[in-house]
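--- STAGE predict ---
source: upstream dedup step, 1 unique chain passed
mode: sequence only
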Amino acid sequence: MTSSSSSTYSASRAGTSFPSNPSARSSPNKSRSDTVCPHCNQPIKEIKYSDDAFHTSLQKLFPGALGLEEFVFETKQTLVPKGFYPHVNTLVCVGLCRDEITSPFEEEVEAMWGRAFICGSLGGMLFCGKTGFSAAHHHAPITGHFIYYCFTHIGIDHEGIIGSVYRTRSGMEEKTTACGALAAFVAEIASNKLNLNFDEDDIEMSMLKKHIINKTGLSTDVMNAPDLLKVTMAAYETITFDLERHVRRDAEKFKDRRYALFTGIQIHGPDGSDYCWLGKASLLI
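--- STAGE serialize ---
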């Protein structure tokens, strides 16, 4: 974050690291060293997964991803020594997709930090806007601390197929997609039927498509149509940009506040398992 009062930090742990400065729009499919994240170009220490198809895809596409509970615990272990205390001086804000399979992330965060202010929408986009962020920032004192977990999401099934997830808890036996909204966006581009007109009956989806294109320059050319992974990365970049912009606006008014920002991708695996790939971690003081 570009401010004289801001600093980014990297929280290290055995087996992986929290990258603090990802490059924009790097292709996750290019051949790279196994010790470099394909998205953010940061060095990582390899985590040993089992050799099944899911973990092979997870390690290849999201190296350094942690189990959901471990990820939230590691972020807490990083922030408490920096003065972020649950139920004392800290408000946690969560921005996730509306999809019910993202709820374990919110539940885990609230178990660690207390009740959260919810600021997400379809795809994890932060469409609560100035009013929503202002409301959150009025729910803590002027010397308060804020933590943001803002993540888009994607599925990887037991066969290692990207975008696929089984929702067995709702009784569905066939595969479904995650993120459904981002997958629909991909399908519109690929079929040359992309509709960027504003639809009052589909407000969030209308905004999602235009916003990601405007913020990342995502290709809408049917001959160079992006796949779901590329669109998911573009959604992550858009969420990061919006979060930093809104937090900087608040920080200019309240000089004694601290803000910790985590953005990335939640990955849904087989049998209800969840993982987190951290794209960026920032501390604004």
